[in-house]
Write a structure and sequence with these properties.
By secondary structure, the protein is of the alpha+beta class. Helices cover about 45% and strands about 10% of the residues.
Length: about 325
């Protein structure tokens, strides 16, 4: 007769993480539908304004960001929209372009107070709904006629405009969602939640969402099973610790590996799957890289200890080091 391990009841398993995410991390389906409806109405109005004012050089809007990708957290309070504009008809400097766009949006929404539509510190035009408190970040994309809606936008961290394609980014995520089911996006959401916990402890901690998406895509493509969430998180943190985030990451969905540049000398190299010249981690210095690795090391040790904990209470305490004090198992 087989003897069950005394550790089995102590283990925090996949269903525990799944249930915690459903209750605390994931945006509720009804909220997703509500937000998307608000975005649809907003986009229709802005698109109609663009069509009625061709002299401004406005083209169209596209939804972008975590809501469009399905990786938004329950704490979502900003929705991203890209507003495509004709590159040769708008101001070339970022601040001038944003001020110009803010005036166009105010013109399209005269019922809103002026301070509800303003240039934000996040390199976008922020539109705040007074009743719901929801913010919409409208980012101008300078379009010059390229295929796949490729255009130039100013990155949030500053610097020169970079070439991007919102439809191809969404397709990149959708292909992996189809391949790995909802596990792909759920592991991303869990990691984004982990980053929130790190920032609650250290305001200087940085690890952008796009970087997390590409990291998970790389590991999934390397054979990491995402269907068991404790194991998947353990694999992600183990990769960060082992690689020290010094291993170059890139994808060949839309360009050949030969299109990548020579080593850039940056502490982290994770390349945009749409643009081989855009290292999305270029803004991080070596100190920030070390913070990410150190935080991943702590998370990895907590998950390992949780697996061998002799009581479920201790296992939950270990997972709280990863997912925060609200985790109750």
């Amino acid at each position: 007769m087989a003897v069950e391990s005394p550790f089995l009841e102590a283990v925090v398993g996949h269903s525990d993480i799944f249930n915690f995410a459903a209750e605390n991390i994931n945006l509720r389906r009804e909220d997703v539908e509500d937000y998307r409806e608000q975005v649809r109405i907003l986009r229709e109005k802005l698109d109609r304004y663009a069509a009625d004012h061709e002299e401004h050089g406005l083209i169209k809007t596209l939804q972008s960001g975590s809501l469009a990708k399905g990786t938004a957290l329950k704490t979502l309070n900003d929705i991203d929209i890209a507003f495509y504009v004709k590159g040769n008809k708008v101001p070339s400097k970022e601040r001038d372009l944003l001020e110009w766009l803010a005036e166009r949006v105010r013109d399209a929404y005269p019922q809103m107070k002026r301070d509800q539509i303003k240039v934000s510190d996040g390199h976008s035009v922020s539109m705040r709904y007074a009743v719901s408190g929801l913010n919409v970040d409208i980012v101008p994309v300078q379009y010059c006629g390229d295929a796949d809606d490729r255009g130039y936008l100013f990155p949030r961290e500053g610097g020169e405009p970079v070439l991007t394609s919102i439809p191809l980014h969404l397709k990149f995520i959708r292909l992996r969602k189809d391949r790995y089911k909802d596990h792909f996006r759920q592991v991303i959401r869990l990691l984004k939640w982990w980053v929130r916990q790190q920032r609650a402890k250290d305001e200087s901690f940085r690890m952008k969402s796009f970087m997390i998406e590409l990291l998970v895509a790389h590991l999934a493509g390397s054979g990491v099973d995402l269907s068991n969430y404790p194991t998947a998180l353990e694999k992600v943190f183990a990769y960060i610790v082992k690689s020290q985030l010094k291993t170059r990451i890139a994808f060949t969905d839309y360009y050949a590996a030969s299109a990548l540049p020579a080593p850039t000398g940056k502490p982290i190299e994770i390349f945009d799957p749409v643009n081989p010249t855009n290292n999305v981690a270029a803004m991080y210095d070596d100190g920030q890289r070390k913070k990410m690795v150190s935080a991943a090391q702590d998370a990895l040790e907590a998950i390992t200890e949780a697996r061998f904990a002799t009581t479920r209470g201790r296992a939950i305490e270990c997972w709280q080091d990863v997912l925060g004090p609200s985790f109750r198992g």
